[in-house]
């Protein structure tokens, strides 16, 4: 499975390289593409957040793989205060935001390992949706739904046996 990582705006190269490395251990081929601009109409000044759908839809589509957009901005969908990410279920594109994965967002000291682990979990979760997986009831499975950062930290960076079985059936 070829994963194309597309950073929005000022995503740090170091963070991209760590994500690329971690994903390549799972999916094999991972390519990092040049950064693209966030569409202007994605910003909602009332919420001071970016519309996740508009970002997701601005990502390029690759026929031989999955596109993973990454942004540092805070993103939302209409009926939720925020989202960690968004994906086209069974489609081609996924998006994650690192805004609320950074420990400093919660007033905690920066912790590189924790931060990168959270980014990997959310990337695997959204890519899982693109691969057709829905939310999993197993709280340790990376496909379990995360309402808060506590949920993100509770789950492992792995697909559970059931989810893996579904992946191999596709
Ligand atoms: Zn989900
Ligand atoms: Zn699962």
Explain how this protein is built.
By secondary structure, the protein is α/β, with parallel strands linked by helices. It has a single domain, classed as Collagenase (Catalytic Domain) (3-Layer(aba) Sandwich). Helices cover 32% and strands 18% of the residues. It is built from five helices and eight strands; from the N terminus they run βαβββαββββααα. The protein has helices at residues 13-27, 52-57, 112-130, 149-154, 161-169, and strands spanning 2-7, 30-32, 43-44, 49-51, 65-71, 75-76, 85-87, 93-97. Strands 2-1-5-8-7 form a five-stranded mixed sheet. Strand 1, helix 1 (13-27) and strand 2 form a beta-alpha-beta unit. Helix 1 crosses helix 3. The longest helix is centred in the C-terminal third of the chain and has 19 residues, at 112-130. It is globular and about 45 Å long. The model has no long low-confidence stretch (mean pLDDT 96). It binds zinc ion (2 copies). One zinc ion (ZN) binds at residues 125, 129, 135, 145.
């Amino acid at each position: 499975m070829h994963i194309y990582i597309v950073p929005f705006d000022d995503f740090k190269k170091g963070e991209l390289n760590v994500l690329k490395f971690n994903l390549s251990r799972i999916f094999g081929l991972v390519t990092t593409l040049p950064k693209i601009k966030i569409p202007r109409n994605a910003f909602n000044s009332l919420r001071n957040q970016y519309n996740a759908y508009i970002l997701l839809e601005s990502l390029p589509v690759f026929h031989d793989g999955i596109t993973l957009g990454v942004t540092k901005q805070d993103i939302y969908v209409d009926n939720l205060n925020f989202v960690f990410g968004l994906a086209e279920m069974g489609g081609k594109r996924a998006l994650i935001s690192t805004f609320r994965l950074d420990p400093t967002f919660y007033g905690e000291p920066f912790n590189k390992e924790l931060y990168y682990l959270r980014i990997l979990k959310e990337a695997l979760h959204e890519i899982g949706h693109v691969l057709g997986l829905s939310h999993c009831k197993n709280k340790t499975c990376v496909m379990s739904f995360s309402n808060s950062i506590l949920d993100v930290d509770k789950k492992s960076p792995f697909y559970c046996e059931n989810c893996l079985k579904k992946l191999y059936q596709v």
